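Suppose you are handed a protein chain with no further information: no name, no annotation, nothing but its sequence. What can you learn? This example shows the usual starting point.
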Amino acid sequence: MGVVDFMSSPDGGVIERLRAQLGAWRDPLSGGQPLSGEGLRELRLVGDAVEVALRLPYPAAGLRVALEEELSRLLCAEPAISNAQVHIDWVVAPIKAPTGVRGMPGVRNVLAVASAKGGVGKSTLALNLALALSAEGASVGLLDADIYGPSQHRMLGVADDGLPEPPSKDSLPPIEAHGLQTMSMGYLLNASRPVVWRGPMISGALQQLVENTRWHDLDYLIVDLPPGTGDIQLTLAQRVPVVGVLIVTTPQEVAIQDARRSIEAFHKVGVPVLGVVENMASYVCGGCGRREFPFGRDGGVQFAADYQLPLLGSLPLEPRIVAGGDSGQPLLAVDPDGDWAAEMRSVARRLAALAALGQRAPEYLVRSE
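A reasonable first move is to predict its three-dimensional structure. Written in structure tokens, the prediction is:
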């Protein structure tokens, strides 16, 4: 039997059954069906063997082998097939922002990381999320939107005296660090000078960073928002085509209460929340090996369930995070194969899959009774 291409073959038997199986396959990260349309690039029969080329709309380097094996088994369940070779790649396409804000030059998708309360590890998580998406095969930028207290330049290890002078205030070159394109007010202000500005000036500063930074060919721009639900968050919703937001919280009730306010605020401005990460959920005692829960247990799990949102991860308390932030060597860059990095990459894949394939309508945020 010769080579058969499903696009041109008159045989509607085996080929069509295989095509239907792939089209009905549910993506394990989002529940979507990415192979029901253009995701199925090629399907060829050579005797009783099949070769398939598939394309995902999100980066998945860490999951590719497992997905190829899963889909190979699915295809081999067809009686006429004895062998299946599956090849997966991905292309991150622009997603239309629900708010209708026009796109940003050089950026396909904007994802924000938020928490209404400080001290929950949001900025550290935003940085490592950007690194995780990069490790998964995406081109990623990081915007530090905390105008009052920028910290990303420190955690990235960019020295204050090592910054190039921007050509003009209307053209800001992003700073390359750890494979990311980055921008922060920390690059533009003296480290010892406080920002004593009123709301309109803060909003104007964010707008300048957003509109004047020359981002280049980014699949994702991760925006690290400051704590709270004020001017920066409102300006972001009005000026930036945010595809969705990731909410970061710790398990204790005080943090959960603030996280609820953050979700409600984004709901009001029409920006969908894609999921929740419970940070600093637990740690393993070095002396006895027992797992401890310093901030309570399962607070983030219940919080996500209350709002019918996916819990994208429950990250442990990791002392090396602090050392990495202080030294400018993020943990995911220092220990890319460690357990914490694996958890972070899992969060990144799920977030990207939900952005591309999941339900993103604002009504998704209605809290269950």
